[in-house]
């Protein structure tokens, strides 16, 4: 099918590992797919161009859904946009009358449109309000299980007790100097609330030496706050658990993640459902099945024995792709 240029809205969205995603998903005519992280629409457009199929696309960011209207007009009747969280895909699709899919793609993380807009507060590269919410309307964050859509990064920075803030930075940002950073933040906020990305970045930079990797000293702290505000790791767990319930026989789930915390969840889930989890030690009584009892037959096939990485050429053209990892599974059908 003929590829058509995707409408842009002043952003710099470049789909990551697009060729690898298509080669793994294998779009076919007449099939129904879900793009659970619509973003700039790069994956959706490629799937629609790759086959005469239908795509349902979810995004928690209301601006992404509004931006997608012009793309939907290029594929009349084939692209269906839904505002919400991919961790609620089962409820969203059921309400829309869709009960089974032939493939699901998830490009996890913050989109380039969000990073490049200082008003969204995701980046320290430009000063803006310390927000970091991926969705800012009631209902956009329905998957956060009780977390108010009004909770921003500024809320966490200015209200969390020092110990809780340090734990958050360590667990979600893997920031080894989390206690030092948390202390600096608490001291700074007693002088005045920390309300902008620029001020938070400067507070962190003042207490951390330059990173040998060349990354900004605030990178890990910003990551931790973003993951917490949007409950991103919980969203991945909920999304994967629901994705496998929606697949037709032969259907595939393809996930692209961007850091170790995300990839660890995806890897563990996919190895578990495909029966590739290492066998327990014979010395561990919990690992024994009673004599004569068969272990469950795996209903999924692991399509990626190890994570697929972007090519050197792609990383050179798009540095944001450097940490990407692609993993996939295929549903084999119901065991007899």
Can you walk me through this structure?
The protein is an alpha/beta fold and 336 residues long. It folds into two domains: 18-113 and 233-331, Rossmann fold, CATH 3.40.50.150; 148-230, Orthogonal Bundle (DNA polymerase, domain 1). Helices cover 39% and strands 13% of the residues. It contains 13 helices and seven strands. The protein has a seven-stranded mixed beta sheet with strand order 3-2-1-4-5-7-6, sandwiched between helices. Helix 7 crosses helix 8 (178-191), helix 8 crosses helix 9 and helix 11 runs parallel beside helix 12 (260-273). The longest helix is centred in the C-terminal third of the chain and has 15 residues, at 232-246. Residues 1-11, 139-146 and 280-296 have low confidence and may be disordered.
